[in-house]
Specification:
The protein has 113 residues and is mainly beta. A 6-stranded mixed beta sheet has the order 2-10-9-4-5-6, with no helix packed on it. It has a 4-stranded antiparallel beta sheet with strand order 1-3-8-7, with no helix packed on it. A hairpin with a 6-residue loop joins β4 and β5. It is globular and about 40 Å long.
Length: 113
């Protein structure tokens, strides 16, 4: 079964940093582009960052310059480094393949004083 398990979330003050990770299983990870998504309470899930199998990255305007997406194909792992966090970054964060409509548990990020 294809599965993504996210970790690394938590409570952080505005301006702080977190590093999220996800481990993929059930796929040959290096063949696929992947993305990080987030869903805030009462809002739709949104795509925040993507990375191709060759390492090309793209970011939503809301996180550009603050977040960095990366991957380690040998470990079937994706990462999201989040710096200069803002309260509006508070959400459950998910990693997934582009276009895949099956979601894991996600990891909660809360930015608050």
């Amino acid at each position: 079964q294809v599965q993504f398990v996210e970790s690394g979330g938590g409570l952080v003050q505005p301006g702080g940093s977190l590093r999220l990770s996800c481990v993929a299983s059930g796929i040959i990870f290096r063949f696929y582009a992947m993305g990080w998504y987030r869903q805030a309470p009462g809002k739709q899930r949104e795509l925040v960052a993507t990375i191709t199998n060759s390492g090309t990255t793209n970011y939503a305007d809301s996180v550009k310059g603050r977040f960095t997406i990366s991957r380690d194909n040998a470990k079937n792992t994706g990462n999201l480094q989040m710096n200069s966090l803002k309260p509006e970054d508070t959400a459950v964060y998910y990693c997934n393949l582009m276009g895949r409509d099956v979601w894991g548990q996600g990891t909660q990020v809360t930015v608050s004083s």
